[in-house]
Please model this.
Amino acid sequence: MLGKPALPSINLDKTPMLLKIFRETSAVVQVEILKLKRDPFELFSRAVQPLLWLLVFGKVMAQVKGVAENEIDYLSFLAPGILAQSLLFSSIFYGISIIWEKDLGVVHKLLVSPAFTFSLVLGKAMAASFRGISQAVIVYLASFLIGVKVSWSFSSILGVVGLVILSSGLFSTFSLIIACLVKTRERFMGIGQLLSMPLFFASNAVYPLSLMPPVIKFLAQLNPLTYLVDALRYFMIDSGAPEHSMIWNFGILVVFFGLFLYIATRLYPGIIR
Model:
């Protein structure tokens, strides 16, 4: 009697794994969106800072001649920088929620689940983009109200949305790396504040690179926020030719995001130790 036929060899196709990662990432994003729906006050509270920068700092600095470049007024020059700042500040403290989840035992449950660690980290990064998009809406509305000539073309809006998603993921994974290293809320808050302000001021967010001393200009060229601001100015206010090519701007952001995503994926399981 013949035995059962041998099972056919399994074709190691990447599609099932990619689908699994997609579903797991989507599940994490949905959970984070539910948190925002239950407590939307966070979005409103984060709207205050960009409004103050535009309505107070921007109005004052607009009186100083020679700060902006490319023959645009200072408020138009500042608006994309404030959007980049909002994305940085809202994402750089995203890691504190990971520490809360660790203290509550949520991270332990996630790590013993069959989900890929990469999916968990990517889901957190993509969820941060929803906060980023809300910040972009606020900055666009404030810019319109104070007379900034924002570009409303479809390609410009699409470019800004892509940059918001990419940069929010970049800075949130950077925040997650910090959280995995320090593991306590007190240390995280101190280091987050220590890093966010130098990143902001050592960039072209509030003044052009041409006004910087050589040392600060060198540091700004190593700062991913500089390339984000350059790309945002090109799309948001149609400032003419960007200082760097758009391929270079997007390429730098993608490289940083990929690097931070890899490091965060490796460090994430160690947060519970």
